[in-house]
């Protein structure tokens, strides 16, 4: 009979294992380790993400039930206590580094310049509870973390992620993000900082965001609008010379205010440093910001960042990194097939067939038929 690898094995073939091994060596992640290697830990956590397991016990039980097939993916069954200890103590930088490598690998073959890229910036919160979450405490009764993401709107994938306690402002995390010179960045009011905008503008980036209601623009010129009732005003002017607490505004270049009316009747004052593009193009760019909201919703519904296997900062960082790697693997596998167009439908098929001997490019087709070996002897119509 022809051999077929499991769906899980097929997905794991897309992992940058050589880079993973270098990361393990760089961080000494397997130093003095006797039981659970970093690779086995990663495979166990990835299995949990793809199978929908919500606890360490469920991951361990699931892997034990498929122990015979773990050998083919380079892993072995794990104990709950060992996996828990590894999540708490092993450096999360190994998994964060692998995510960055997978971002680069997923982006290969995209023939475009950075100036054509549209990046969406936003953050989503996750709740934590129980012992060990004091690092993320933001009130007497509540703990939480934030996942800050830069999302490539055209490739439909995250290209950067960082985890902070929930009380860290979005703009504080944004200032630590790398800037891709010449790209378009779209973001909302959580990133309202003239100094940061000036840094983006200096790097040749186009920015699209919203005005706060109290920010006044000193208008220097006004352009005609189409009269379709969508674009109400199109003005060029200067931002206030002073910010809050009498700080000097470092963004002294002209900006553009485009006032639009949405389909629901809401009026938005959009801000951009692009003084030449059609007003409708800027409005459409801001509308694309919804894609990152859909990404957050998809990840929370399909993968596992609602329920955490550990509350320590290290365990949370590892679980989020593995969840984002799982997302990239699913998108890469989906791109390699033509039968399933919906990312959600494809993820559900992967979950249903995860340890079955199937190929990810034929999940909607009947499983391969088992054909008898012609060398087998038969007696009275029965194989022996």
Describe what this molecule looks like in 3D.
The protein is an alpha+beta fold. Strands 3-2-1-4-5-9-8-7-6 form a nine-stranded mixed sheet, with helices on both faces. Among the domains are: 7-97 and 315-352, no CATH class; 188-288, no CATH class. The two termini are 16 Å apart. It is 36% helix and 18% strand. Helix 3 packs across helix 12 (313-335) and helix 6 (80-89) crosses helix 12. The protein is globular, with a radius of gyration of 25 Å. The longest helix has 23 residues, at 313-335. It is built from 13 helices and eleven strands.
Roughly how many Å is the radius of gyration? 25 Å
By DSSP (H or I, 4+ residues per run), the number of helices equals 13
Alpha-beta content class? alpha+beta
The description of the largest β-sheet is: 9 strands, mixed
Q: Give the tally of β-strands.
A: 11
Oligomer: single chain
Order of helices and strands: HHHHHHHEEEHEHEEEEEHHHHEE
- Within the largest sheet, what's the order of strands? 3-2-1-4-5-9-8-7-6
Given as residue ranges, the uncertain stretches (5+ residues, pLDDT < 50) are none
- How confident is the prediction overall: mean pLDDT? 90
Termini separation: 16 Å
Helix content: 25-40%
Outline: globular
- β-strand percent reads 15-25%
């Amino acid at each position: 009979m022809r051999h077929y690898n499991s769906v899980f094995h097929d997905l794991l073939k897309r992992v940058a294992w050589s880079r993973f091994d270098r990361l393990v060596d760089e961080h000494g992640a397997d130093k003095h380790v006797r039981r659970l290697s970093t690779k086995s830990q990663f495979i166990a956590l990835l299995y949990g993400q793809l199978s929908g397991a919500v606890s360490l016990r469920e991951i361990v039980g699931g892997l034990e039930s498929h122990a015979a097939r773990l050998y083919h993916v380079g892993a072995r069954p794990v104990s709950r206590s060992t996996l828990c200890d590894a999540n708490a103590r092993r450096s999360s930088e190994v998994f964060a580094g692998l995510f960055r490598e997978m971002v680069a690998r997923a982006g290969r073959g995209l023939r475009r310049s950075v100036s054509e890229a549209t990046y969406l910036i936003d953050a989503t919160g996750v709740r934590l509870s129980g012992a060990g979450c004091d690092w993320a405490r933001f009130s007497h009764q509540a703990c939480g973390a934030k996942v800050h993401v830069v999302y490539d709107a055209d490739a439909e994938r995250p290209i950067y992620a960082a985890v902070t306690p929930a009380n860290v402002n979005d703009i504080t995390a944004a200032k630590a993000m790398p800037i891709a010179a010449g790209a378009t960045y779209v973001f909302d009011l959580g990133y309202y900082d003239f100094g940061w905008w000036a840094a983006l503008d200096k790097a040749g980036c186009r920015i699209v965001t919203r005005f706060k209601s109290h920010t006044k623009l000193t208008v220097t010129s006004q352009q005609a609008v189409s009269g379709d009732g969508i674009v109400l005003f199109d003005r060029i002017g200067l931002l206030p010379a002073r910010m809050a607490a009498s700080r000097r505004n470092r963004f002294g270049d002209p900006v553009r205010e485009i006032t639009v009316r949405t389909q629901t009747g809401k009026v938005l004052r959009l801000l951009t440093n692009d003084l030449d593009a059609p007003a409708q193009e800027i409005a459409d760019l801001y509308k694309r910001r919804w894609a990152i909201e859909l990404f957050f919703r998809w990840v929370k519904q399909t993968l596992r960042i609602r329920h955490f296997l550990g509350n320590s900062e290290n365990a949370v960082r590892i679980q989020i990194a593995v969840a984002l790697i799982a997302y990239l693997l699913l998108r890469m596998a989906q791109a390699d097939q033509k039968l399933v167009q919906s990312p959600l439908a494809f993820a559900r098929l992967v979950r249903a067939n995860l340890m079955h001997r199937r190929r990810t490019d034929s999940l909607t087709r009947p499983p391969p038929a088992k054909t008898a070996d012609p060398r087998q002897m038969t007696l009275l119509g029965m194989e022996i």
